[in-house]
């Protein structure tokens, strides 16, 4: 099934199987146009928002 996109319904069904307790985002912009050296890190824990 590689390369096959999920339908919205399939994505909803799979999302019901997941529980997210936390997530972490690490953003490195050092290779960005203009040569910026900014680094940012964000972590969040708690309940994930539920869909419609």
TrEMBL record:
It comes from the Bacteria. This is Uncharacterized protein. It comes from Streptomyces haneummycinicus. Residues 28-52 are annotated as: Disordered.
